[in-house]
Write a structure and sequence with these properties.
Length: 438
Protein backbone atom coordinates (compact mmCIF):
# COMPACT_ATOMS: atom_id res chain seq x y z
CA UNK A 1 0.00 0.00 0.00
CA UNK A 2 1.39 3.38 -1.05
CA UNK A 3 0.06 6.89 -0.47
CA UNK A 4 -0.73 8.54 -3.75
CA UNK A 5 -2.14 11.94 -4.67
CA UNK A 6 -3.76 12.63 -8.03
CA UNK A 7 -3.95 16.29 -9.05
CA UNK A 8 -6.95 17.00 -11.29
CA UNK A 9 -10.19 15.05 -11.32
CA UNK A 10 -10.69 15.27 -15.06
CA UNK A 11 -10.49 12.23 -17.22
CA UNK A 12 -6.95 11.06 -16.60
CA UNK A 13 -6.66 12.10 -12.95
CA UNK A 14 -9.85 10.43 -11.86
CA UNK A 15 -9.16 7.18 -13.72
CA UNK A 16 -5.58 7.07 -12.43
CA UNK A 17 -6.68 7.82 -8.87
CA UNK A 18 -9.51 5.33 -8.70
CA UNK A 19 -7.52 2.56 -10.40
CA UNK A 20 -4.54 2.96 -8.07
CA UNK A 21 -7.01 2.89 -5.15
CA UNK A 22 -8.52 -0.29 -6.54
CA UNK A 23 -5.03 -1.82 -6.57
CA UNK A 24 -4.98 -1.34 -2.78
CA UNK A 25 -3.26 2.06 -2.44
CA UNK A 26 -4.53 5.02 -0.44
CA UNK A 27 -5.37 7.77 -2.90
CA UNK A 28 -6.37 11.39 -2.39
CA UNK A 29 -7.62 13.29 -5.45
CA UNK A 30 -7.25 17.06 -5.32
CA UNK A 31 -8.78 19.64 -7.62
CA UNK A 32 -9.36 23.39 -7.38
CA UNK A 33 -12.89 22.98 -8.77
CA UNK A 34 -15.00 22.88 -5.60
CA UNK A 35 -18.18 21.83 -7.36
CA UNK A 36 -16.53 18.81 -8.94
CA UNK A 37 -15.00 17.72 -5.64
CA UNK A 38 -18.30 18.19 -3.79
CA UNK A 39 -20.12 16.18 -6.47
CA UNK A 40 -17.56 13.38 -6.31
CA UNK A 41 -17.98 13.20 -2.53
CA UNK A 42 -21.70 12.65 -3.21
CA UNK A 43 -20.89 10.00 -5.83
CA UNK A 44 -21.66 12.21 -8.86
CA UNK A 45 -19.16 11.68 -11.71
CA UNK A 46 -17.88 14.66 -13.75
CA UNK A 47 -17.59 12.49 -16.88
CA UNK A 48 -19.33 9.52 -18.42
CA UNK A 49 -17.10 6.45 -18.44
CA UNK A 50 -18.36 2.87 -18.28
CA UNK A 51 -17.66 1.30 -14.86
CA UNK A 52 -16.27 4.47 -13.27
CA UNK A 53 -19.06 5.28 -10.84
CA UNK A 54 -19.11 1.80 -9.38
CA UNK A 55 -15.32 1.78 -8.92
CA UNK A 56 -15.32 5.21 -7.26
CA UNK A 57 -18.11 4.22 -4.85
CA UNK A 58 -16.46 0.91 -3.96
CA UNK A 59 -13.08 2.48 -3.21
CA UNK A 60 -14.56 5.41 -1.26
CA UNK A 61 -16.50 2.96 0.89
CA UNK A 62 -13.34 0.94 1.47
CA UNK A 63 -11.62 4.13 2.70
CA UNK A 64 -8.96 4.02 0.00
CA UNK A 65 -10.20 6.97 -2.06
CA UNK A 66 -11.00 10.52 -0.97
CA UNK A 67 -11.43 13.95 -2.54
CA UNK A 68 -10.35 17.40 -1.42
CA UNK A 69 -9.66 20.91 -2.66
CA UNK A 70 -6.78 21.38 -0.20
CA UNK A 71 -3.25 20.66 -1.42
CA UNK A 72 -1.97 20.63 2.17
CA UNK A 73 -4.44 17.88 3.05
CA UNK A 74 -3.79 16.00 -0.20
CA UNK A 75 -0.03 16.00 0.22
CA UNK A 76 0.11 15.32 3.98
CA UNK A 77 0.98 11.62 3.60
CA UNK A 78 1.78 11.44 -0.10
CA UNK A 79 4.82 9.66 -1.49
CA UNK A 80 3.77 10.02 -5.13
CA UNK A 81 1.91 12.91 -6.74
CA UNK A 82 0.44 12.37 -10.20
CA UNK A 83 -0.17 15.59 -12.14
CA UNK A 84 -3.10 14.91 -14.45
CA UNK A 85 -4.51 18.29 -15.40
CA UNK A 86 -5.66 19.44 -18.82
CA UNK A 87 -3.33 20.83 -21.46
CA UNK A 88 -5.77 22.43 -23.90
CA UNK A 89 -4.75 23.70 -27.28
CA UNK A 90 -3.26 27.19 -27.12
CA UNK A 91 -2.35 29.67 -29.82
CA UNK A 92 -0.91 28.14 -33.06
CA UNK A 93 -1.45 24.60 -31.80
CA UNK A 94 1.03 25.05 -28.97
CA UNK A 95 -0.13 23.26 -25.80
CA UNK A 96 -1.46 25.61 -23.11
CA UNK A 97 0.42 24.78 -19.93
CA UNK A 98 -1.24 27.13 -17.45
CA UNK A 99 -2.90 24.30 -15.50
CA UNK A 100 0.31 22.25 -15.27
CA UNK A 101 2.10 25.38 -14.03
CA UNK A 102 -0.60 26.01 -11.40
CA UNK A 103 -0.51 22.39 -10.26
CA UNK A 104 3.31 22.36 -10.01
CA UNK A 105 3.30 25.62 -8.08
CA UNK A 106 0.62 24.44 -5.64
CA UNK A 107 2.54 21.20 -5.03
CA UNK A 108 5.75 23.18 -4.43
CA UNK A 109 4.05 25.50 -1.94
CA UNK A 110 2.44 22.66 0.03
CA UNK A 111 5.17 20.00 0.03
CA UNK A 112 6.85 19.31 3.36
CA UNK A 113 8.55 15.98 2.78
CA UNK A 114 10.28 14.29 -0.19
CA UNK A 115 7.98 13.52 -3.12
CA UNK A 116 8.08 11.80 -6.46
CA UNK A 117 6.14 14.01 -8.86
CA UNK A 118 4.79 12.05 -11.78
CA UNK A 119 3.54 13.94 -14.79
CA UNK A 120 0.69 12.30 -16.69
CA UNK A 121 -0.59 15.37 -18.51
CA UNK A 122 0.37 15.41 -22.20
CA UNK A 123 2.93 18.18 -22.29
CA UNK A 124 5.41 19.38 -24.92
CA UNK A 125 8.64 17.44 -24.99
CA UNK A 126 10.96 18.96 -22.40
CA UNK A 127 8.23 19.96 -19.96
CA UNK A 128 9.39 17.49 -17.33
CA UNK A 129 12.49 19.66 -16.81
CA UNK A 130 10.28 22.74 -16.66
CA UNK A 131 8.06 21.24 -13.92
CA UNK A 132 11.23 20.64 -11.88
CA UNK A 133 12.20 24.30 -12.37
CA UNK A 134 8.80 25.49 -11.13
CA UNK A 135 8.98 23.27 -8.05
CA UNK A 136 12.45 24.63 -7.24
CA UNK A 137 11.22 28.17 -7.72
CA UNK A 138 8.20 27.92 -5.42
CA UNK A 139 9.09 25.46 -2.67
CA UNK A 140 9.50 27.00 0.77
CA UNK A 141 12.19 24.59 1.86
CA UNK A 142 14.89 22.40 0.37
CA UNK A 143 12.82 19.22 0.46
CA UNK A 144 13.98 16.65 -2.10
CA UNK A 145 11.88 15.70 -5.08
CA UNK A 146 12.12 13.93 -8.42
CA UNK A 147 10.08 14.33 -11.57
CA UNK A 148 9.03 11.29 -13.58
CA UNK A 149 7.12 11.45 -16.84
CA UNK A 150 4.44 8.76 -17.17
CA UNK A 151 2.43 9.37 -20.34
CA UNK A 152 -1.04 7.91 -20.39
CA UNK A 153 -2.44 5.79 -23.21
CA UNK A 154 -6.03 5.50 -21.99
CA UNK A 155 -8.87 5.61 -24.49
CA UNK A 156 -12.10 7.27 -23.48
CA UNK A 157 -14.84 4.69 -23.16
CA UNK A 158 -12.32 1.95 -22.34
CA UNK A 159 -10.17 3.84 -19.84
CA UNK A 160 -10.50 1.51 -16.86
CA UNK A 161 -9.56 -1.62 -18.76
CA UNK A 162 -6.80 0.29 -20.57
CA UNK A 163 -5.39 1.24 -17.15
CA UNK A 164 -5.68 -2.26 -15.73
CA UNK A 165 -4.40 -4.08 -18.86
CA UNK A 166 -1.92 -1.70 -20.50
CA UNK A 167 0.16 -2.69 -23.53
CA UNK A 168 3.06 -0.93 -21.82
CA UNK A 169 3.88 1.51 -19.05
CA UNK A 170 6.37 4.21 -20.04
CA UNK A 171 8.37 6.02 -17.37
CA UNK A 172 10.91 8.73 -18.06
CA UNK A 173 13.20 10.34 -15.54
CA UNK A 174 16.64 11.78 -15.07
CA UNK A 175 16.78 9.69 -11.90
CA UNK A 176 16.38 5.97 -12.59
CA UNK A 177 15.73 5.19 -8.92
CA UNK A 178 12.69 7.46 -8.93
CA UNK A 179 11.36 5.82 -12.11
CA UNK A 180 11.86 2.40 -10.55
CA UNK A 181 9.85 3.43 -7.50
CA UNK A 182 6.98 4.49 -9.76
CA UNK A 183 7.39 1.19 -11.64
CA UNK A 184 6.64 -0.63 -8.35
CA UNK A 185 3.17 0.92 -8.34
CA UNK A 186 2.44 -0.72 -11.69
CA UNK A 187 3.87 -4.16 -10.85
CA UNK A 188 0.47 -5.69 -9.97
CA UNK A 189 -0.60 -5.06 -13.59
CA UNK A 190 2.14 -7.40 -14.89
CA UNK A 191 2.67 -5.12 -17.88
CA UNK A 192 5.81 -4.35 -19.84
CA UNK A 193 7.47 -1.39 -18.15
CA UNK A 194 9.89 0.75 -20.14
CA UNK A 195 12.17 3.27 -18.44
CA UNK A 196 13.69 6.08 -20.53
CA UNK A 197 14.93 9.62 -20.09
CA UNK A 198 12.29 12.33 -19.56
CA UNK A 199 12.15 13.74 -23.08
CA UNK A 200 12.00 10.34 -24.74
CA UNK A 201 9.03 9.32 -22.57
CA UNK A 202 7.21 12.53 -23.49
CA UNK A 203 7.98 11.93 -27.16
CA UNK A 204 6.68 8.34 -27.03
CA UNK A 205 3.26 9.75 -26.17
CA UNK A 206 3.17 12.21 -29.08
CA UNK A 207 4.62 9.73 -31.55
CA UNK A 208 2.06 7.07 -30.55
CA UNK A 209 -0.93 9.38 -30.96
CA UNK A 210 0.45 10.85 -34.18
CA UNK A 211 1.01 7.36 -35.58
CA UNK A 212 -2.53 6.24 -34.77
CA UNK A 213 -3.90 9.44 -36.33
CA UNK A 214 -1.72 8.75 -39.37
CA UNK A 215 -3.22 5.29 -39.75
CA UNK A 216 -6.70 6.83 -39.71
CA UNK A 217 -5.80 9.48 -42.28
CA UNK A 218 -4.03 6.86 -44.37
CA UNK A 219 -7.11 4.65 -44.57
CA UNK A 220 -9.26 7.72 -45.20
CA UNK A 221 -7.06 8.66 -48.15
CA UNK A 222 -7.32 5.08 -49.40
CA UNK A 223 -11.11 5.34 -48.99
CA UNK A 224 -11.21 8.31 -51.34
CA UNK A 225 -9.18 6.42 -53.90
CA UNK A 226 -11.46 3.39 -53.42
CA UNK A 227 -14.45 5.57 -54.27
CA UNK A 228 -12.76 6.70 -57.46
CA UNK A 229 -11.70 3.19 -58.48
CA UNK A 230 -14.73 1.18 -57.40
CA UNK A 231 -13.17 -0.76 -54.49
CA UNK A 232 -14.52 -1.28 -50.96
CA UNK A 233 -12.30 0.25 -48.26
CA UNK A 234 -13.77 -1.95 -45.52
CA UNK A 235 -12.56 -5.07 -47.25
CA UNK A 236 -9.31 -3.41 -48.28
CA UNK A 237 -8.61 -2.61 -44.61
CA UNK A 238 -9.50 -6.16 -43.55
CA UNK A 239 -7.25 -7.59 -46.25
CA UNK A 240 -4.39 -5.33 -45.20
CA UNK A 241 -4.90 -6.06 -41.52
CA UNK A 242 -4.27 -9.79 -41.89
CA UNK A 243 -0.66 -8.91 -42.56
CA UNK A 244 0.80 -9.13 -39.06
CA UNK A 245 3.12 -6.26 -39.81
CA UNK A 246 0.07 -4.07 -40.39
CA UNK A 247 -2.68 -5.38 -38.06
CA UNK A 248 -6.37 -4.49 -38.04
CA UNK A 249 -6.56 -1.65 -35.49
CA UNK A 250 -7.23 1.97 -36.43
CA UNK A 251 -8.05 1.26 -40.05
CA UNK A 252 -11.71 2.26 -39.97
CA UNK A 253 -12.38 4.89 -42.61
CA UNK A 254 -14.98 7.52 -41.76
CA UNK A 255 -15.57 11.18 -40.91
CA UNK A 256 -12.12 11.33 -39.36
CA UNK A 257 -10.68 11.45 -35.87
CA UNK A 258 -11.83 13.83 -33.13
CA UNK A 259 -11.64 14.06 -29.36
CA UNK A 260 -9.43 15.85 -26.92
CA UNK A 261 -6.23 14.05 -27.93
CA UNK A 262 -5.45 13.29 -31.58
CA UNK A 263 -6.37 16.70 -33.05
CA UNK A 264 -4.50 18.58 -30.32
CA UNK A 265 -1.48 16.28 -30.14
CA UNK A 266 -0.83 16.04 -33.88
CA UNK A 267 -1.03 19.83 -34.09
CA UNK A 268 1.24 20.31 -31.08
CA UNK A 269 3.84 17.89 -32.45
CA UNK A 270 3.84 19.69 -35.79
CA UNK A 271 4.23 22.98 -33.94
CA UNK A 272 7.15 21.67 -31.88
CA UNK A 273 8.83 20.56 -35.10
CA UNK A 274 8.18 23.81 -36.95
CA UNK A 275 9.48 26.15 -34.31
CA UNK A 276 12.70 24.17 -34.47
CA UNK A 277 12.95 24.55 -38.23
CA UNK A 278 11.73 21.05 -39.18
CA UNK A 279 9.09 20.34 -41.81
CA UNK A 280 6.46 17.95 -40.46
CA UNK A 281 5.01 17.24 -43.92
CA UNK A 282 3.37 13.96 -43.00
CA UNK A 283 1.69 15.43 -39.92
CA UNK A 284 0.39 18.33 -42.03
CA UNK A 285 -1.10 15.86 -44.52
CA UNK A 286 -2.66 13.84 -41.69
CA UNK A 287 -4.49 16.96 -40.46
CA UNK A 288 -5.52 18.04 -43.95
CA UNK A 289 -7.00 14.63 -44.80
CA UNK A 290 -8.86 14.60 -41.50
CA UNK A 291 -10.43 17.94 -42.27
CA UNK A 292 -11.29 16.82 -45.79
CA UNK A 293 -13.23 13.81 -44.43
CA UNK A 294 -15.74 16.14 -42.76
CA UNK A 295 -16.18 18.10 -45.97
CA UNK A 296 -16.57 14.93 -48.03
CA UNK A 297 -19.63 13.83 -46.03
CA UNK A 298 -21.28 17.21 -46.53
CA UNK A 299 -20.47 17.13 -50.25
CA UNK A 300 -22.07 13.71 -50.61
CA UNK A 301 -25.19 15.08 -49.01
CA UNK A 302 -25.20 18.08 -51.29
CA UNK A 303 -24.99 15.76 -54.30
CA UNK A 304 -27.83 13.64 -52.97
CA UNK A 305 -30.17 16.53 -52.20
CA UNK A 306 -29.12 18.91 -54.95
CA UNK A 307 -28.29 21.64 -52.42
CA UNK A 308 -28.64 22.10 -48.69
CA UNK A 309 -30.60 25.31 -48.25
CA UNK A 310 -33.66 24.76 -45.99
CA UNK A 311 -33.07 21.01 -45.90
CA UNK A 312 -33.68 19.21 -42.59
CA UNK A 313 -30.69 17.08 -41.72
CA UNK A 314 -30.50 14.69 -38.76
CA UNK A 315 -27.21 13.67 -37.18
CA UNK A 316 -27.11 10.19 -35.68
CA UNK A 317 -24.50 10.64 -32.96
CA UNK A 318 -22.73 13.67 -31.50
CA UNK A 319 -19.95 12.22 -29.34
CA UNK A 320 -16.52 11.98 -31.02
CA UNK A 321 -16.77 8.20 -30.66
CA UNK A 322 -19.11 5.70 -28.94
CA UNK A 323 -19.17 5.10 -25.16
CA UNK A 324 -18.35 8.66 -24.23
CA UNK A 325 -20.27 11.91 -23.87
CA UNK A 326 -17.21 13.87 -24.99
CA UNK A 327 -17.85 16.19 -27.91
CA UNK A 328 -14.51 17.97 -27.98
CA UNK A 329 -13.34 18.31 -31.59
CA UNK A 330 -16.11 15.92 -32.53
CA UNK A 331 -16.74 15.54 -36.29
CA UNK A 332 -20.42 16.22 -35.44
CA UNK A 333 -19.64 19.82 -34.52
CA UNK A 334 -17.70 20.46 -37.73
CA UNK A 335 -20.34 18.77 -39.89
CA UNK A 336 -23.18 20.65 -38.15
CA UNK A 337 -21.44 23.99 -38.72
CA UNK A 338 -20.84 23.28 -42.40
CA UNK A 339 -24.46 22.25 -42.88
CA UNK A 340 -25.78 25.28 -41.05
CA UNK A 341 -23.61 27.67 -43.00
CA UNK A 342 -25.03 26.13 -46.20
CA UNK A 343 -28.52 26.99 -44.91
CA UNK A 344 -29.65 23.57 -43.63
CA UNK A 345 -31.59 22.95 -40.37
CA UNK A 346 -29.63 20.53 -38.21
CA UNK A 347 -31.12 18.19 -35.62
CA UNK A 348 -29.34 15.45 -33.71
CA UNK A 349 -29.65 12.54 -31.35
CA UNK A 350 -26.97 10.90 -29.20
CA UNK A 351 -27.50 8.23 -26.53
CA UNK A 352 -25.32 10.00 -23.91
CA UNK A 353 -23.94 13.28 -25.25
CA UNK A 354 -27.18 15.29 -25.18
CA UNK A 355 -26.15 17.30 -22.12
CA UNK A 356 -22.77 18.09 -23.64
CA UNK A 357 -24.55 19.00 -26.88
CA UNK A 358 -26.78 21.56 -25.21
CA UNK A 359 -23.57 23.28 -24.10
CA UNK A 360 -21.31 22.78 -27.13
CA UNK A 361 -23.78 22.99 -29.99
CA UNK A 362 -26.68 25.03 -28.57
CA UNK A 363 -28.07 25.83 -32.04
CA UNK A 364 -28.58 22.15 -32.90
CA UNK A 365 -32.09 20.94 -32.14
CA UNK A 366 -32.09 17.71 -30.10
CA UNK A 367 -34.39 14.75 -30.66
CA UNK A 368 -35.32 12.19 -27.99
CA UNK A 369 -34.55 9.07 -30.03
CA UNK A 370 -33.47 8.05 -33.55
CA UNK A 371 -37.06 7.72 -34.76
CA UNK A 372 -38.21 11.17 -33.70
CA UNK A 373 -34.95 12.46 -35.21
CA UNK A 374 -35.80 10.86 -38.56
CA UNK A 375 -39.31 12.30 -38.68
CA UNK A 376 -39.57 14.73 -41.58
CA UNK A 377 -35.81 14.74 -42.28
CA UNK A 378 -34.49 15.12 -45.82
CA UNK A 379 -31.42 13.12 -44.87
CA UNK A 380 -29.62 11.45 -41.98
CA UNK A 381 -25.88 11.31 -41.39
CA UNK A 382 -24.27 8.67 -39.16
CA UNK A 383 -21.54 10.52 -37.28
CA UNK A 384 -20.91 8.19 -34.31
CA UNK A 385 -21.04 4.40 -34.56
CA UNK A 386 -23.09 3.77 -31.39
CA UNK A 387 -24.22 0.16 -31.12
CA UNK A 388 -27.85 1.22 -30.81
CA UNK A 389 -27.69 2.66 -34.35
CA UNK A 390 -26.54 -0.66 -35.81
CA UNK A 391 -29.85 -2.39 -35.17
CA UNK A 392 -32.38 0.33 -35.89
CA UNK A 393 -35.66 -0.52 -37.59
CA UNK A 394 -34.49 1.03 -40.85
CA UNK A 395 -37.76 0.48 -42.69
CA UNK A 396 -39.50 2.52 -39.99
CA UNK A 397 -36.80 5.20 -40.23
CA UNK A 398 -37.26 5.31 -44.03
CA UNK A 399 -41.03 5.75 -43.68
CA UNK A 400 -40.63 8.56 -41.17
CA UNK A 401 -38.25 10.55 -43.36
CA UNK A 402 -39.28 13.11 -45.97
CA UNK A 403 -36.64 11.59 -48.28
CA UNK A 404 -34.83 8.31 -47.57
CA UNK A 405 -31.27 9.64 -47.87
CA UNK A 406 -28.63 8.29 -45.51
CA UNK A 407 -24.96 9.23 -45.52
CA UNK A 408 -23.05 6.78 -43.37
CA UNK A 409 -19.96 8.50 -42.00
CA UNK A 410 -18.90 5.36 -40.10
CA UNK A 411 -19.79 2.57 -42.54
CA UNK A 412 -22.08 0.80 -40.09
CA UNK A 413 -24.67 -0.34 -42.65
CA UNK A 414 -24.47 -2.71 -45.57
CA UNK A 415 -24.86 -0.82 -48.87
CA UNK A 416 -26.78 -3.68 -50.55
CA UNK A 417 -29.31 -3.91 -47.69
CA UNK A 418 -29.77 -0.16 -47.68
CA UNK A 419 -30.41 -0.19 -51.39
CA UNK A 420 -32.94 -3.00 -51.02
CA UNK A 421 -34.70 -0.92 -48.39
CA UNK A 422 -34.97 1.89 -50.90
CA UNK A 423 -32.45 4.28 -49.36
CA UNK A 424 -30.17 6.58 -51.27
CA UNK A 425 -27.13 5.44 -49.31
CA UNK A 426 -23.51 6.55 -49.34
CA UNK A 427 -20.82 5.26 -47.02
CA UNK A 428 -17.15 6.18 -46.97
CA UNK A 429 -14.85 4.51 -49.49
CA UNK A 430 -17.39 1.99 -50.68
CA UNK A 431 -16.72 2.49 -54.34
CA UNK A 432 -18.89 -0.36 -55.56
CA UNK A 433 -22.05 1.33 -54.28
CA UNK A 434 -24.62 1.46 -56.97
CA UNK A 435 -25.85 4.92 -57.82
CA UNK A 436 -28.72 5.71 -55.46
CA UNK A 437 -32.38 5.36 -55.99
CA UNK A 438 -33.85 8.73 -55.09
C1 LIG B 1 -6.51 8.33 -27.91
C2 LIG B 1 -5.52 7.16 -27.90
O1 LIG B 1 -6.11 6.02 -28.53
C3 LIG B 1 -5.12 6.80 -26.47
O2 LIG B 1 -4.12 5.79 -26.49
C4 LIG B 1 -4.55 8.06 -25.79
O3 LIG B 1 -4.22 7.82 -24.43
C5 LIG B 1 -5.59 9.16 -25.83
O4 LIG B 1 -5.92 9.44 -27.20
C6 LIG B 1 -4.98 10.39 -25.19
O5 LIG B 1 -3.99 10.91 -25.71
O6 LIG B 1 -5.43 10.76 -24.11
P1 LIG B 1 -9.15 8.60 -27.51
O7 LIG B 1 -8.97 10.01 -27.99
O8 LIG B 1 -9.93 8.36 -26.27
O9 LIG B 1 -7.71 7.91 -27.27
O10 LIG B 1 -9.91 7.81 -28.66
P2 LIG B 1 -9.56 6.75 -29.80
O11 LIG B 1 -10.28 5.50 -29.53
O12 LIG B 1 -8.11 6.64 -30.01
O13 LIG B 1 -10.25 7.45 -31.06
C7 LIG B 1 -9.84 8.74 -31.51
C8 LIG B 1 -10.62 9.14 -32.72
O14 LIG B 1 -10.23 8.40 -33.86
C9 LIG B 1 -12.14 8.96 -32.61
O15 LIG B 1 -12.79 10.10 -33.15
C10 LIG B 1 -12.43 7.74 -33.46
O16 LIG B 1 -13.72 7.76 -34.00
C11 LIG B 1 -11.37 7.89 -34.53
N1 LIG B 1 -11.02 6.62 -35.19
C12 LIG B 1 -10.42 5.64 -34.48
C13 LIG B 1 -11.27 6.45 -36.55
O17 LIG B 1 -11.79 7.35 -37.23
N2 LIG B 1 -10.90 5.27 -37.14
C14 LIG B 1 -10.31 4.27 -36.46
O18 LIG B 1 -9.99 3.23 -37.07
C15 LIG B 1 -10.06 4.45 -35.09
Amino acid sequence: MKNITAVGVGYVGLITGVCFADLGNKVVCVDINEERIENLKQGLMPIYEPGLEELVTRNMQAGRLSFTTSYAEALADAEFVFIAVGTPEGVDGEADLQYVRMAARSIAEAMEHPLIIVNKSTVPVGTGDWVADIIREYRNNSVDFDVVSNPEFLREGAAISDFMYPDRVVLGSLNRDAAEKVAQLYLPLRATIMITDLRTAEMIKYASNAFLATRISFINEISNICEALGADVKEVATGMGYDQRIGHAFLDAGVGYGGSCFPKDVKALAYMAEIRGRHPQLLRAVMEINHYQRRAVVRKLEDALGGLRDKRIGLLGLAFKPNTDDMRESPSIHVARMLQSAGAHVRAYDPVAMKAAARMAPDVELAQDPYSLAEGCDALIVVTEWNEFKNLDLARIRDLMARPVLIDGRNIYDPATMKELGFYYRGVGRGYEDQGTQ
